[in-house]
Amino acid sequence: MRKKDISSQVEDYKGMFERISKIRQARRGLTILLFLSSLLILFNIHPVSGQVLQVDVWTNKGGQGVSNLNGGTYYLGEVVTIYCSVSSAVDRLVVTIYKPDGSVLTLYDGAWPGGIFQDSGTAGYPLGKRRVICQAWKGDLSISDEVDYNVIGCPAHTFYLGVEIKVLNDEDLELMGWFRPEDASWDDFVNLCWNGYPGKDYYINNYLKLGLLYPMFGIRKAAIKGSGLDNSRQRVWLKLKVKFKDLSRSDYELKILRFRDPIKSAGTGFVDEIHLTSFKDIWKANPSPTHRTDKSIDWINTNMASAPLDYEVYLYAIASLRIRVEGIPPDMQVSVSIDGRDVGSIKPGEAIEEELLGEEHMIEVKPELIQYSNDTRYRCEENLIHISGSGEVIFKYRAEYRVILSSSKAGLTIDGIHYDPSGLPFEDWWEEGSIHEVVADEVEIEQVSDVKRTVFQFSKWSDGYSSRTREIQVSGPIRLTAIYHSVTQYYVSVESKYGRTVGSGWYNEGEEACIGLRGVESENGVIFVPITKVERVVFQGWTGDLVTSASKKCIKVDSPKSIVATWRKQYFLTITTEHGIAYGSGWYYDGEQAKVGIRPTTVYTADKRTRYIFDGWIGDYSSAEREFVVVVNRPMTIRVKWFAEHLVELRVMPDEIAERVISFSEKWIKSGEKFVMDVGDEIPISNDTKYVFVDWSVDGKTSKSKTIEVVVTRPLKMTISYEPWYYVLVRSPYGEVTGSGWYRSGSDALISIKPTKIGFLIMHVFDGWMLDGEFIGKDPAHLIRVYRPVVLTARWRTDYTQLLILAVILGLIGGFMGFIGLKKIPLHRLIHYRVLKERPKKHEAEEITDIREKLTKLEEAYRRGEISEEVYKRLKQELEERLHEREH
Fold first, then answer.
1. What does residue 304 show for φ and ψ, rounded to 5 degrees?
2. What is the DSSP string of 780-824?
3. At what angle do helices 3-42 and 844-863 cross, to 10 degrees?
4. 319-355: buried (b, 16+ CB within 10 Å) or exposed (e) per residue?
5. Do residues 410 and 444 touch, judged by C-beta distance below 8 A?
6. In what helix (H) or strand (E) does residue 847 lie, and over which residues does it extend?
7. Would you say 592 and 569 are in contact if contact means Cβ atoms under 8 Å apart?
8. Tens-digit pLDDT profile for residues 6-31
């Protein structure tokens, strides 16, 4: 290799080395950036703000610290507090509890300003371990922490309940309530319920005291004598001492102990055992006890249905009575007896008072009925009264008055019972204050003919009351007579084929009869009866003894009348249209002519992109005219027929070539028809510029086909897209250039030249590329991005180095010939030695690296479609040959 060639290659290698160094520096920068991003994610550092995002969840019993799951153990009913610490404000914070039964409770879900979230609740069922998860999101960053806590407690159980009552004396009692847990072992109850939750205070105060004894006896005040566990009987007990007078349910004066089962009253069960002992004999107990002695009573209950609700215990038998009388005149008196023993007489305002042993007594008053006068008497409501215990007995008398009711012609109905004239007058005794209904018959009729009769009509009562129906409230004796008078009546007959008539019936001579219709409808002054929705009969007037077109009319009845309604049929003409305004719809008499039409005949939608064209009439009448006349002789439906046209809008991108591609920009197409159009593949603009078809876009859908075929069912907006292509011209006075051709705007063109040196002693050396007179690079293979037509010219320089080297070598050969002869050294060995000695080696590795990077860039450009396959294969072959030369 000659020395001048080595210098030229060194310059090329320096340029390649600089480019390779820049690429390596960029790679190192990218590596550092990826490493830093990994650190941000690893340490929860927000990539924008740089803040560290940390979440920690714990309970008031433990678990504080990230990844610390031990949140402690809680008894049922114990307060659990959840804490979630968030190091900074987050977009979303979700705090969730997952329970052993699979249910999920969300405590919070929303944005959080940072700091500690706190929520408290009571540990409940189901028992077992819960998992609390606190998760936060900030941008793309998410972090969470978890903690567990366990819930243990009292197993579900029921109670066997008992109450023990000791009556110590007339004033004092001892009450003891107790229960024995069921469905749970005694040890579990003591350890988990009594010593745990709900605890002994709950069972003593809340259950036995406030839940059982206090409401059972209505205790106002009591003293606690003791409470606790009875391990031998496996029960919990509470003993109270109370005063008889402090029991609100009991009768202190009569020494009647009363109590109610509060458990049964609440519907949650019943008291199983009640035991009572007394300092004295017990007189009576309700309900009947299970066991009884003179001084003790036991109730043993086995089920909810038979267990009593209320209980009574009578310690003494005594009755205090007060007897009075009400309702008789003050000048009268009655006699009273108790259990058959006369105890005296009393008047209104007086009383008899007696103290009696025992509680069952019969009290009687006499007489039961007091005749005060011919029209007035007094009757006792209940003259024999049975009483149990102490109390007041009032005998109440009610005044009764004589009633006589009669009629001059017709019958009467009294309190719902009809009495014929032969059964009158009516006589009875009515109680003072009682209310009775009396109705006089309206008429008594004597028929003269089918249309004439004589009627005896009610006129008034003898006291002047005018209504034949009257309500009488008794305040004294009553004597009344119904009075009647006679009148001649005529029959008025009102008939109609349709609807119902008003006015038919009997009328007094000279009375006014009002004729009318019912079951008809009125619309815009027209009276009609609908037969169907599209057929009706219209009222025309009355004929016979009344001739008028008015639907309602009053006439004087001076003779029998016959009146008939007349009608005429109408049919409904229905005109329908989906567009525009159609006229002619309505009711028409049979045989009447109707004028039908439509306007306008072309209707546009609001966006002006669809229109409807009038296309004639269909249904019960066909026509192509906009307006016509039809005879209505039946219900008819006529519809307007339309056809739709949709606007197809065309646009070419870019706009400046639209006139070269399409001949119109808008066109109306009938709905359902096909729109077909072809476009050119290329639109030439100049020798070095053209536009190439890309695709169609129809309402967001694209097609690469140059022929578009669309069934038009709606307005369409079509876009035909082209993209510019430019010609790249590569030229050189020496060598062979590649890369000339058409390129899409924005794509890369790879140009090259070979060989880069031409000549023997005088060399022409490639010296870079020129674009528009400016130097753009020395690389024989050069990549440019095309945005316009381009002309690239290869620049060359002349190198005389080889010629000079030859001259020097020839001079050296002459100078060394003598030396060679003297030293006897072969000439070819000397030349070979010097050539090997001068061969450079230090740039070959860098040149190999440069060629490989060019191959990589070439592969990427081909994959992106920036160079053609032909250029790709040719350049690849050249680079691989150069690589092979360097490596071998």
1. -65, -40
2. SSEEEE-SS-EEEEEEEEEE-HHHHHHHHHHHHHHHHHHHHHHHT
3. 60
4. bebebbbebbeeeeebebebeeeebeebebeeebebe
5. yes
6. helix 844-863
7. no
8. 233 334 434 444 554 554 555 555 44
List pLDDT tens digits, range 43-83. 444 444 455 799 999 999 999 999 999 999 988 878 999 99
What rounded mean pLDDT belongs to the chain? 86
How remote is the C-alpha of 827 from its chain's centroid? 105
**Tokens matching residue 17:** 């080395």
Total-model pTM? 0.37
CA–CA separation, 116 and 87 (whole Å): 9
Q: What is the pLDDT of residues 619-654, one digit of tens each?
A: 999 998 999 999 999 999 999 999 999 999 888 989
How far is the CA of 219 from the CAs of 43, 239, 252, 451, in angstroms? 68, 13, 13, 86
Asked if 204 and 177 count as a contact pair (C-beta separation under 8 A), the reply is no
Place of tokens 């490989």: 852
Q: What is the pLDDT of residues 564-621, one digit of tens each?
A: 999 999 999 999 999 999 999 999 999 999 999 999 999 999 999 999 999 999 999 9
Cβ pair 45, 52 in contact under 8 A? yes
SS3 300: strand
CA–CA separation, 209 and 157 (whole Å):
19
Return the percent helix, strand and coil in the chain, to nearest 5: 20, 50, 30
**Contact between 532 and 635 (Cβ < 8 Å):** yes
**Per-residue b or e along 697-706, where b marks 16 or more CB atoms closer than 10 Å to that residue's CB:** beeeeeeeee
d(CA 847, CA 559): 139
